[in-house]
Structures are given as structure tokens and as C-alpha cells.
Amino acid sequence: MILPDVNVLVYAHREDADRHAEFRSWLEHVLRGPAAYGLSDLVLSGFLRIVTHPKIFERPTPIAEAMAFVT
Which residues of 28-50 are buried (b: 16+ CB within 10 A; e: fewer)? Predict the structure, then answer.
């Protein structure tokens, strides 16, 4: 089972993140692949806390957009 870390989700989601394309490609490959994958509640809450935080990103992700990315 593949369980991505919160940083993988942040980098895959945020186009302004370093190595965004690399992480986005990896995540899309996992989602389309045959291996089982999952997201823990801790990773989900960390992802939402980070990408929506205005002190971390000049333009934080709206909560609805962040939720859509992980559902």
C-alpha cells in the first residue's frame, strides 16, 4: 500500500511549489496504477492546514479547492 506524505500532496497540488511537476506526475501515476493507496487523517489534516494557511502561502488555496484535490 502506498501512503503519500503530506509534503507529497502539497508539492503535487501547489503549482508554485518546487518540483511541482515531478510530484504531480508521481501522484497521478500512483492514482492510475494497480497498487493500493490511501491517505491518513493526519496527512489530510496537515495538507489542508498547510495549503490554506495565509502565512505560508501568499495566495493560499481556498478550502473547497483543497478538499476537491484530496477527494
Answer: eeeeeeeeeeeeeeebbebbbeb
Q: pLDDT tens, 43-60?
A: 999 999 999 999 999 999
Residue of 23, 66, 61, 24 whose CA lies nearest to 44: 66
Q: What does pTM read for this prediction?
A: 0.92
C-alpha cell at 6: 503530506
Count Cα neighbours of 5 within 13 Å in the Cβ-side half-sphere: 4
Residue 57 lies in a domain: yes
The answer to whether residue 1 is domain-embedded is no
Q: Is residue 16 domain-resident?
A: yes
